[in-house]
């Protein structure tokens, strides 16, 4: 099947779907210009600059014991590289507006789908746009953390503000996981963008899918992808913008 034929087939399946659920992978974040500290290139660059791996710094232990160094890394490498919303991401919003897309499930912390206008988004690992004082529970926007000098402090009680993201070593919100499982279980079409069938995101949720079609769009091949009904090679957001949805 040619690439053009695959695009036409994907468009038809998506438009005929009554309950489309999207699993949005980390490669989409990278392609939108966000820092992906899990990628080999970003991890190498960060470790070269800081002398610690991003995996070590983006952890609950590092935050709890070296919060000044954590925020130096977090503000410079995460908050300053939040990416941009492209036409492919806007396609997801249009599908939601049409009543086709029922949920986006993502481990992305940059809130890309929400920034594109999607409302039905489950951010499994939280968002950089939500911050809270762990003592008095005062909420703070991302800008308050990004633009402060040094470690951000609560203006009411002086406690260090905590980003509402899931750091390494922390448990994911179980209620959110349950909601994501329920959404996948109700889907008749599952759309995987920027991840393989071998990714942690896919392995966590695909097993609950009981629908008709799995469409996978990614620019990296994996042997496990043969389990999908339709695989389209290419950058996920570029392909989505070509579907004409």
Automatic annotation (TrEMBL):
<dbReference type="InterPro" id="IPR029035">
    <property type="entry name" value="DHS-like_NAD/FAD-binding_dom"/>
</dbReference>
<keyword id="KW-0520">NAD</keyword>
<dbReference type="InterPro" id="IPR026591">
    <property type="entry name" value="Sirtuin_cat_small_dom_sf"/>
</dbReference>
<feature type="domain" description="Deacetylase sirtuin-type">
    <location>
        <begin position="1"/>
        <end position="245"/>
    </location>
</feature>
<feature type="binding site">
    <location>
        <position position="154"/>
    </location>
    <ligand>
        <name>Zn(2+)</name>
    </ligand>
</feature>
<dbReference type="InterPro" id="IPR003000">
    <property type="entry name" value="Sirtuin"/>
</dbReference>
<dbReference type="InterPro" id="IPR050134">
    <property type="entry name" value="NAD-dep_sirtuin_deacylases"/>
</dbReference>
<keyword id="KW-0808">Transferase</keyword>
<dbReference type="Pfam" id="PF02146">
    <property type="entry name" value="SIR2"/>
</dbReference>
<feature type="active site" description="Proton acceptor">
    <location>
        <position position="125"/>
    </location>
</feature>
<protein>
    <recommendedName>
        <fullName>protein acetyllysine N-acetyltransferase</fullName>
        <ecNumber>2.3.1.286</ecNumber>
    </recommendedName>
</protein>
<feature type="binding site">
    <location>
        <position position="136"/>
    </location>
    <ligand>
        <name>Zn(2+)</name>
    </ligand>
</feature>
<feature type="binding site">
    <location>
        <position position="157"/>
    </location>
    <ligand>
        <name>Zn(2+)</name>
    </ligand>
</feature>
<dbReference type="InterPro" id="IPR026590">
    <property type="entry name" value="Ssirtuin_cat_dom"/>
</dbReference>
<feature type="binding site">
    <location>
        <position position="133"/>
    </location>
    <ligand>
        <name>Zn(2+)</name>
    </ligand>
</feature>
<keyword id="KW-0862">Zinc</keyword>
<keyword id="KW-0479">Metal-binding</keyword>
């Amino acid at each position: 099947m040619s690439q053009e034929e695959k695009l036409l087939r994907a468009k038809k399946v998506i438009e005929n779907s009554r309950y489309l659920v999207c699993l949005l992978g980390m490669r989409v974040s990278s392609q939108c210009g966000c820092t992906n500290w899990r990628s080999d290139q970003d991890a190498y660059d960060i470790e070269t600059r800081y002398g610690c791996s991003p995996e070590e710094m983006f952890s609950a232990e590092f935050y709890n014991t070296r919060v000044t160094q954590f925020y130096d890394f977090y503000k410079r490498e995460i908050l300053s590289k939040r990416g941009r919303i492209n036409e492919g991401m806007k396609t997801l919003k249009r599908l939601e507006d049409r009543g086709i897309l029922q949920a986006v499930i993502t481990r992305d912390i940059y809130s890309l789908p929400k920034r594109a206008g999607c409302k039905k988004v489950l951010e499994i690992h939280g968002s950089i746009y939500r911050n809270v004082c762990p003592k008095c529970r005062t909420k703070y926007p991302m800008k308050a953390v990004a633009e402060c000098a040094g470690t951000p402090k609560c203006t009411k009680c002086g406690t260090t503000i905590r980003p509402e993201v899931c750091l390494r070593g922390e448990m994911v919100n179980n209620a959110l996981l349950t909601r994501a499982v329920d959404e996948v279980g109700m889907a008749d079409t599952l759309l995987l963008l920027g991840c393989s069938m071998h990714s942690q995101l896919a392995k966590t949720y695909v097993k609950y899918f009981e629908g008709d079609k799995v469409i996978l769009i990614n620019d990296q091949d994996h042997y496990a992808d043969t389990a999908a009904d339709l695989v389209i090679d290419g950058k996920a957001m570029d392909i989505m913008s070509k579907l004409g949805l």
